[in-house]
Amino acid sequence: MILSAAVLVSHLAGAPALSPYQPEPVELQRARQLMLSRPSECVALTNFFLQRKEVDPAKMVNSRQDFDHQELAKRYRTREQSQAAWQIQALCQANEGLSLPADTSINQAIKLAKRYRQPDAEAASLIIKAKLVLAQQDTEQANSLLEEAGLLLTVNAPPSLKAALPLFQASVLLYQHRFDEARLAFEQIRVQAQQQGEYIQQAWANYLLGEYYLLLQQDELALSHYVETLNLLGKRRQYYLKAMAADKAATLHASLGKGEQAMHYANQATTEFELLGNPTLLISSLLNLGRVTRAGNDASLALVYFFNALDLVKIQGDANLMARLYLEIGHSYRLLKTYAEARHYLTLARASFKRNQDIPHQVDTLLQLGQLHLEQQEHGLALIQLDQARKLAELQDDVPRLIESHRLLALLFETSGSPTQALVHHKAFHAYYERASQLNRLLTQSLVQESDQQLQQERELSGLRRQNEQLQQDKQRFTLLAFSLGLIAPLLLYGWLRNHIRSRRLLQSNTELQQSLLLEPRTGLPNWRQLMLRLPQEMAKRQQRSEQWYLNEAQAEPFNDKIYYLLLHVPFMVDLSERIGLAHAATLQKELGEYLQGRIHPKARLYDLREGQFIYVISQRQVNSLQQTVASLERMFAEFPSHFHLDRRLAIGIIGHPFLPKAPHTLDDMRLGNILYLAMAAAHQLVEQTGESAWVKLLAVDCQQAAFFNGDIRHCCIQAILKGLVKVNSSHKKQQIDWSALASEPAISI
Fold first, then answer.
1. Which among 651, 519, 510 has a CA at the least distance from the CA of 574?
2. Which residues contact 572 (CB under 8 A, 6 or more apart)?
3. Cβ neighbours of residue 160 under 8 Å, at least 6 residues apart?
4. Quick check: helix, strand or coil at residue 684?
5. Which InterPro entries match (predicted)?
6. Do residues 366 and 392 lie in contact, with contact meaning Cβ atoms separated by under 8 Å?
7. CA-CA distance, 1 to 377, in Å (whole number)?
């Protein structure tokens, strides 16, 4: 098998969502994350999601102000979401080794795409089906599926699908042993990806080129491509590809006798597989790390890696993998000359391989047991083990293992004083070694094709020369035209420069005007327009994080990623012009704006809403203590230098967004603003009663009472405060607040 099934199935595992009408549900996002690390959970998530009823996409329009639409989105699925779920389920089932269920799932996705006439979605499903078929080495069907997918792709298809198609077509060529065509295709993909800055695509092309050179036994070239793949990925979170490239680099360094480099890349592969979270791949990496470490004459450290892998295998219960670890542990104990432990683990491995009828590994175990008895001068037992290994290898016509069997038998008979028998096995050893050498020469004959490629390149060079002659003739014809255009070029250049300078001035004026519209002219602070531009994006971001926190399985801690909004009422800014005059008021307001910009927290924002009202916005992560933040705001206004007598008693209302972390979409910006003004009105009452600055913070309790806030938000919030569903924190006694006086009452008609 040229490429591992895991490589083919995992590539583009995070294919783009095919649902352009709305964001992908949280269940499918989580399933994509678990596709390689925990495929069984990924299958369970997609099965759970597919139990929803399918509805028309027109009914699934997002509206953060309509609670019914949000509830509808949590109970139903659209056509596009259904297709994405079937695609993800197929990939997860394939990564779990369930080929038949995976084929059934992807066929369902193809069926849905055909029914709803969505060519791009059908093409994506066909590419995934081609991956699954190629993993079974059915190159003809895979090629047919990829050709069909190429015909279906539209101009507006996602770029990742367009990039995936040529990469898999080149992989099919490699499977079909059309080596030159495959190499040219991979090189073209790599160059194109490099020009477009698509480093992940370039890294995959590099990795598959390494597979190409490894197949042709050009280890140095293969190694350079694996190392280049790792350099391209750098610190990107492409754990699987980095782990595979590092694992191959470690194996090649070990075969070239570079022990330190081999251990470095083997450790890197193990680290990446551990970050990926897939225990099966991590076990395989630990096996390779142990072998490389043992090859570097450190069998003790190799045992540590093997036993770590054994602990993971015992959790999975894979008997075959456990037997392979017993073999490696026994081999390591033999090198350490701990013969009792070596015999114990090798005997366990042999019994397991015999039950599973795994003849190649059974031969390896018998060879290790033979060497163990040979080192202990137990020639009779060694002969039994080695001769049985030879017979099993002959049944399989396993040339490498026959070479090792005859080598050890020859050594056994030499040490036991039987030169005639030793000579027989030496002859057999050399015969099989020569046979293996001839096989290697046959495998490398494909390199002869490079001469044909060179001939083709020379023909292409001749064609380029003819094209060059034609271009020279065209150049002479266009020279006269260029001379004519050169005469009128100065006029065209002057007109172009004049229009360019004029457009630059207009563009600069437009930019300055747009910036001035976002600032309050009196104080120079950001105004309400700038607040409204940023507020929807800021709220949507916190709503998404709140949803992820709520759906997270381990929500032991409360939601701690809110945005605090502090609405400040500054009394001396209300009637400033009336009290001190326009000129002094303008000067004082400008000085106040410059003063405040230099005093606020570097990660906070302050907006001037006019009429003496300011909004101070700061992230919860930047606030150690809310009381300290309020105190710093009061101190900031109190320390503002002015020779006029100013009323500096601040009334501050405070809320955090999301106001309801478990139902973040319930309240939009207008309803949150009403709650914020209610908090400031309560603070006004405290200021009037105490004659001091005051603040009031409203905080919903940690429960899902979203439905309680339907209706007039001010009235609902006051009722929630009275019922204890909204907590009140303040700088003074909160019992002094008369909430009934703050209720909105309609005007009474006379």
1. 651
2. 612, 646, 647, 648
3. 12, 15, 16
4. helix
5. Rev_trsase/Diguanyl_cyclase, TPR-like_helical_dom_sf, TPR_rpt
6. yes
7. 41
Whole-number pLDDT of residue 177: 79
Q: Are 615 and 644 in contact (CB under 8 A)?
A: no
Q: What one-character DSSP code corresponds to residue 21? A: T
Q: Assess whether 547 and 458 both reside in one domain.
A: no
The pLDDT value recorded for residue 122 is 81
Tell me the Cα Rg of the chain. Answer: 37
Distance of CA 407 to the CA centre of its chain: 50
Do 306 and 329 meet the contact criterion of CB atoms below 8 Å apart?
yes
Residue 6's pLDDT is what?
38
Q: Could you tell me how far CA 264 lies from the centroid of its own chain?
A: 25
Phi, psi of 661 (to 5 degrees): -60, -30
Buried/exposed 710-727: b ≥16 CB within 10 Å, e otherwise: eeebbebbbbbbeeebbe
Whether residue 706 is contained in a domain is answered as yes
Global pTM? 0.50
Sheet strands side by side (includes 694-700): 605-608, 613-619, 563-569, 651-657, 694-700, 726-730
In a domain, 731, yes or no: yes
Element holding 314 (H helix, E strand):
helix 299-316
Cα angle vertex 418, ends 417, 420, to 5°? 145
Amino acid 444: pLDDT: 47
Residues 91 and 229 grouped into a single domain: no
Which element (helix H / strand E) includes 700? Answer: strand 694-700
Q: How far apart are CA 551 and CA 543, in angstroms?
A: 12
Residue 736, in any domain of the structure = yes
| Cis bond upstream, residue 39 (ω within 30) | no
Regarding whether 183 and 78 lie in a shared domain, the answer is no
- Tell which residue, 164, 172, 76, has the closest CA to residue 125: 164
Query: Which CATH number does the domain housing residue 156 bear?
Result: 1.25.40
pLDDT for the residue numbered 417: 79
Three-class SS state of 643: coil
CA 13 to CA 6: how far, in whole Å? 11
Dihedral sign from CA coordinates of 534, 535, 540, 542: positive
Same domain, 693 and 646: yes
Tokens of 537: 């994006």
Q: Which domain holds residue 537?
A: 528-742
Q: What is Dmax (Cα atoms) for the chain?
A: 128
CA angle 6, 168, 193 (to 5 degrees): 105
Same-domain pairing of 559 and 685: yes
Number of domains the chain is built from: 4
Is the domain of 558 the same as that of 452?
no
552 phi, psi to nearest 5 deg: -70, 140
Q: Which of 14, 92, 86, 88 is nearest to 50 (CA)?
A: 86
Task: Assess if residue 364 is contained within a domain.
Answer: no
DSSP of 580-605? H-HHHHHHHHHHHHHHHHHHS-TT-E
The reported pLDDT for the residue numbered 705 is: 65
Which residues of the chain, if any, have pLDDT below 50? Answer: 1-22, 62-67, 442-452, 454-455, 458, 747-750
Tell which phi-psi region holds residue 581, choosing left (phi > 0), alpha (psi between -120 and 50) or beta. Answer: left
Burial class (CB in 10 A: 0-12, 13-18, 19+), 286: buried
Asked whether residue 469 falls in the same domain as residue 552, the answer is no
Instruction: Output the pLDDT for position 616.
Output: 93
Other CB atoms within 10 A of residue 307 CB:
14
3-class secondary-structure state, position 132: helix
Q: Which two tokens stand for residue 63?
A: 């509206």
- Of 517, 544, 567, the last residue of a domain is 517
3-state secondary structure of 365: helix
Burial label for 99, CB within 10 Å (0-12, 13-18, 19+), is middle
Using the structure block, give the residue that is written with the tokens 């009275």.
Answer: 722
- Taking CA atoms, 595 is separated from 68, 352, 383, 567, 617, in Å, by 46, 80, 94, 19, 17
